[in-house]
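Protein Entry — a single chain follows
Fields — amino acid sequence, structure tokens
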Amino acid sequence: MLREAALLHGSVLGLQALLSLSRRLDARVRHTLSAEEVVFQFRTERSARRLVIADGRVRSSAGLCTDPDFEVVFVDLEGALRRIREEPGNLLSLLVENKIEQRGNTYYLFELGYLLTLSQQALEAAIPRRMGASGDRGVEQ
């Protein structure tokens, strides 16, 4: 139970940190976040954490929300996280393999996917792929 709670809370806090960092790096992320007001809830049988996007900011807090805009219920949290790590582009398999259930307006799921894509692009642009021998940024060997 403690491991499950730590995995859930750590994953949502990581998602919050990713979105917050990309907000600082990219104007498209800032614009998209400022246009959204949404509450995502991630939960297991015994633990819950919500991710709130409002006023251009991202925050999270522990506990259940009575009326989230979108909710992901992890039936098999460790299996779902393993699958995401192995195949991040194949999230549909999580539903098919009964590792997660989802509830709510699926528009918000697509919006979260869009934000994650923008975040990935912002981080890839900010972090050089390889460092040259001289330490020059972006110089490929």
Remarks:
- The chain has a mean pLDDT of 85.
- The longest helix spans residues 2-25.
- Residues 2-73+102-119 form a domain with the Nonspecific Lipid-transfer Protein; Chain A fold (CATH 3.30.1050).
- Residues 18 and 71 are 19 Å apart (CA to CA).
